[in-house]
Amino acid sequence: MLKIEGVHTFYGNIEALRGIDMEVNEGEIVTLIGANGAGKTTLLMTCCGAPQASKGRILFEGQDISRMPTHEICHLGIQQSPEGRRIFPRMSVYENLQMGASTQDPKYFDQDLEMVFDLFPRLKERITQRAGTMSGGEQQMLAIGRALMGRPRLLLLDEPSLGIAPLVVKQIFETIKQINREKKVTVFLVEQNAFHALKLAHRGYVMVNGNITLSGTGAELLANPEVRAAYLEGGH
């Protein structure tokens, strides 16, 4: 579904991605783990066209999207829930979800809204509340819900566990599994919480300094001594 071939991305003179090769197959949950500053978010942003890759290609269902503007990429069926949530804090929950649906035919709005409320009942309870007054976990639910309102076939999730209480993190990851299994949405997950991410994922990649250094199934990477030492608290 998504194929990344030899992608380089720069911020000015700084090379953030150094020839990335990876793929996400339809129906999978694929996770990308790595330390802060490794280039994980840059890769997701490059998939969405901002910034654009300076070398290499990004293919979505065989179509080269490397030079497409972001709004056209969204119309193809790629939606992102960004790092730090970036909801519209002054808008209500309902208005945020309306924004997520803005690229879609209005005839789908009611059924998509019900789907989001089924996944995240808390959002239904908060439907008229200003999004900025909710807890971090509730805001993360809203960020994912807003992306789902765009009817994605490929959902890009950037650090969904960041700054959230452990109990809510577990709930968020269970919902990601449900989105993949029941809603048939392919997921590309960027996450620092390597244990939860690799347990959830069918396959995973490890990024270090803008390079992919390891890949394998989620179980293989969980068992890998290098991964355990670097990302799983020394293997404990």
SSE topology:
Blueprint: E1 2-11, E2 14-24, E3 29-33, H1 40-47, E4 55-60, E5 63-64, H2 70-76, E6 78-81, H3 93-100, H4 109-119, H5 121-125, H6 136-148, E7 154-158, H7 166-182, E8 186-190, H8 194-200, E9 203-208, E10 211-217, H9 218-223, H10 225-231
Parallel strand pairs: 3-8, 3-9, 6-7, 7-8
Antiparallel strand pairs: 1-2, 1-4, 4-5, 9-10
Helix pairs in contact: 3-6
- State the domain count: 2
The largest sheet, given as strand count, sense and whether it forms a barrel, is:
6 strands, mixed
- Poorly predicted runs: none
CATH class of the largest domain: Alpha Beta
SSE-based structural type: alpha/beta
Q: What is the string of SSEs from the N terminus onward? A: EEEHEEHEHHHHEHEHEEHH
Determine the fraction of residues in helical runs and give it as a percent range. 25-40%
Question: Distance between termini?
Answer: 35 Å
CATH superfamily descriptor of the largest domain:
P-loop containing nucleotide triphosphate hydrolases
Q: Using the CA coordinates, give the radius of gyration.
A: 17 Å
**How many helices does DSSP assign?**
10
Q: Can you name the CATH architecture of the largest domain?
A: 3-Layer(aba) Sandwich
Strand arrangement within the widest β-sheet reads 6-7-8-3-9-10
Tell the overall outline: globular
Q: Tell me which oligomeric state these chains represent.
A: single chain
- Please state the average pLDDT score: 93
